[in-house]
Amino acid sequence: MNTSPAPEVPASQIVYSDDDLVYVDPDTRTVIGRVEWSKNGERPLSKAFVAALGKAAVAPKGKVAKEEKRSYWRKVYPWGTYRSMKRIFKVEGKIKDPEPNKTLEEVLPKALSQAFWKW
Question: pLDDT tens across 66-104, in order?
């Protein structure tokens, strides 16, 4: 029997379907992972945002500036379906909306029969 743990797959190689619920990092535009659920499975858990440590702003005169004051106490990763997250946060790059491909001859009869301006 092999009792060694299974090798972990890097996050960049995981393929998500459009209906998977995922966490997204809006700053790096990457998927963090699948949504985790509470013990009883009724509600999703909020995943706390991990800030980059050691990041200090530099003032113009070379002095280290004070850290920004935050008006919130906790920042969490947004989550949703992979389909909506890739459109909102452009996870896979810019997505073009499909252009209409109907001709005027196909559209005109419907426009004449269902015109919104007719009372």
Answer: 555 555 567 888 999 999 988 888 888 877 777 888 888
**DSSP letter at 81?**
E
Neighbouring CB atoms inside 10 A of 38's CB total 9
Q: What's the gap between Cα 48 and its chain centre?
A: 15
Strands (E), 1-119: 21-25, 30-34, 79-81
> Averaged over 7-21, what is the pLDDT?
75
Single out the residue of 89, 103, 102 nearest to residue 29, CA to CA.
Answer: 89
Bridge partner residues of 21 (DSSP): 81
Put simply, whether the predicted model's pTM sits higher than 0.70 gets the answer no
Tell me how far CA of residue 62 lies from CA of 55, 56, 57, 67, 68, in angstroms: 15, 12, 10, 15, 17
Q: Provide the b/e sequence for 88-107 (b: ≥16 CB within 10 Å).
A: ebebeeeeeeeeeeeeeeee
Question: Would the pLDDT of 55 be above 80?
Answer: no
